[in-house]
Design brief:
The chain is α/β, with parallel strands linked by helices. Helix content is 37%, strand content 23%. The strands form six sheets. Strands 1-2-3-4-5-6-8-7 form an eight-stranded mixed beta sheet, with helices on both faces. Strands 11-12-10-9-13-14-15 form a seven-stranded mixed beta sheet, with helices on both faces. A seven-stranded mixed beta sheet has the order 17-16-19-18-20-21-22, with helices on both faces.
Length: 895
Amino acid sequence: MTGIQEAPAHALLSDGTTVRIRQAGPADREDVLRLYEEMSPENLRLRFFSVSPAAARKAADRVAEGVRPAYRALAAEYEGRLVGLAEYEVLPAGSTAEIALAVADGWHHRGVATLLLEHLADAARTAGVTAFTADALSENHEVLKVFHDLGLLVTRRFDGPEVHCTVELAEGNTYLDAVDARGRVADVVSMQPLLRPRAAVVIGAGRRPGSVGRAILRNLRTGHYAGPVFAVHPDAGAIAGVHAYRSVADLPQVADLAVIAVPAAAVPEVAEECGKAGVRALLVVSASLDRHQSGALIQACRRHGMRLVGPNCLGLANTEADVRLDAIFAAHHPGPGTAGVAVQSGGVGIALLEGLSRLGIGVSSFVSLGDKYDVSGNDMLQWWESDGRTDMALLHLESFGNPRAFSRTARRVARSMPVLTVDAGRSEAGRRGAASHTAAAATPTMTRQVLFAQAGITATRTIGELLDTAALLHAQPLPTGTRVAVVSNAAGVGVLAADACSEAGLDVPTLAADLVDELLDLLPDGATATNPVDVTAAVGEEQLHACVGLLARHGAVDAVLVTLVPTALAEATGEDLVHALTQSPERLPRPVLAVRPTQAARRELLPTVGAATIPAYSDAEDAARALAHAAARTKWLSRLPSPVPEMRDVETARAREIVAACLDDDPEGGWLDPQTTAALLTCYSIPQIPWAWARDEDEAVVAAGRLAGPDGRVVMKAYWPGLLHKSEQRALHLDLQNPSQVRAAHRDLVSRFGDRLTGVVVQPLAERGTELFAGIVRDEVFGPLVVFGLGGTATELLADHAARLAPLTELDAHDLLTSPRCSPLLFGYAGSPAADLGDLEQLLHRLSRMATDLPQLADADLNPVLAGPRGITTLDARIRLVPRQEHDPYLRRLR
């Protein structure tokens, strides 16, 4: 396991405690021996089947021998004390390892053994181990439960008082779900001191009114925080009415949360003092920490098990009635509500807080993540999922520490609540700004948008668009589709609203004749109702109310957009048309939105006589975009979650051996030769056209005779290391029909490319079919993506490709097939033969599996892939390797 081999990892136990997982070795002999010596006789007997001290000494000696090819030991430690040990030793067969577990007395039932087993299994998989075995006494219910609850396939064989367990290490959806569940419990518990602290202290609350620390101290007091508030200042005394102490150690009680607002140079020392005093969480608003200060800060947090928000952040808040925590240096207290907000930019945070407050939505909790050393968007999603108050999540993220773990969490959370984000950094300039602002790596726009689409996240382009959409999702039910009825009291604004809907991807259908007749019976003379529905300036409250109600209850449309302008006629008659939208005591079954071009606010929520509210916008385009986002959420929710298919006919171990051998021969990596490329594709059962390697003219003739089909025709392709675009360099010959043409083609390649040519590939001429592209590209931040689209010589020119992050679920693969513009070709467009879609989906899943199995795989291009009714085959392939080790993105570990 790369991470544990090279450096320790920190992770959370089920009670929120942070432990350090590291490789154990010779220096640990005495600590291991002490671990066993301090065990109760009963626990010692369950571990060794006896209470003999000799067994403990032998176990300590085994660890002291250090790392060996067939042996690995991982230690869990807390504040320098060894609290758990997990070992494996590979059995002679080579693919199975025997394991042993030990947990210190006093640390049972906190998840130590399970966490160690997860990390040990990851190390074993990397080493080619496929199964663990362990012997236990049948009365050792605790360890048997640990094995059972892992989420891996476990078989038991009883032999008298002992039970022999075998644990298959293959990671499937059940295992990842179990890891998710354990991580969620631990994460939420660890966040309690941050968002529900029993006491808080502000360190660096200056005496000058304009200081950040003083502003936070004032907001804690005036926001009526439920717990005691303390201040730390070297001069003691009182600050903003709060008694100040000279140090954290002098506080009358331990504070769960410490707000640090001191100069950057002092942050590490203050953090260390907080850790020693028992503080459990830090909010660091200080900015401009250098690399040394940053490292010292995070080390102090890990050493003492403190969660950290920041540095360089606005603060955090929790509006729960029994907490009322406002540790933000903003001008106003956040209004209580049900929206969870997490941002990396303080400015975006203030804008969202103010916008949600004006709408009356408010926030359940708010966290400004800042430079995001520890607590991330993933942590906040898990908190909101379990806090019992949040029904909508709003995110602004400029960077992603673990995108695949974030995606997995977001997919789950988005099933229970809308998750919205501002898609920041779409332009090159924006990405530069994000990188300089948060020291984050720039992320390609397409990759980020793929992440959002797969996870069900509603991605908006601006803060205003996010608030527009939040208002609709908060106030109204989701539309059942994209059909919209546009209602207006002025034909011109109705036409503009219909245009806005169409441009947003919505449908404004012509209404059926019977529905038109019903509407006209309700409306004044001169009204039209084909859609848009022009109710005319003469419409009254009751008529408009009946019209909107009929449309919202009728199955002909999925939403109703009502655009109203003030008229002299309505003013003269005293008719309040807005009142017509808000007088229904019951919530209508389909969403109703208002557009009022003359209203002062860009968006607002209009209260009804019932419990619902009506979102009203000043611009029809804002309303239409919000409705389009809501319809997209409906579509995403309508698709049942799909698993990542599990494949049995892949040779992962063999593929890893091939990759390791290539990088041993060429440590810098590069493009693979045809033989190695074909061998890797074979490991994943990816269909390839028959081919042969020929070193000279005679071998090429023999290969052509063997491979030629019934028509006798073959293809010859040149090869040398680094050759990428054969067509551009005219490095291939097609439709060779006899030995003389094969010889002539080979001589042509030799004459033109000379010593560069290391050989040729000979293939039969393929049948006709649709030429497609399928491949893998690995993003440095987001990991591997599977790319699919139009292939052949025009693939780069037309750029008709779609992408999804690996691993692909069944729905992801289907989306990949249907997203490119060329997808109608797969279904028999214009008389072309339809492709075998099942085979294409299998190809995408196999590429996905290869990408996730092999972190060293930087690029894989299968172009063209020939698709027809009788199946698919790869005509040409390129694979590039780089020396890279990658952490398992789902392994539980803190950033």
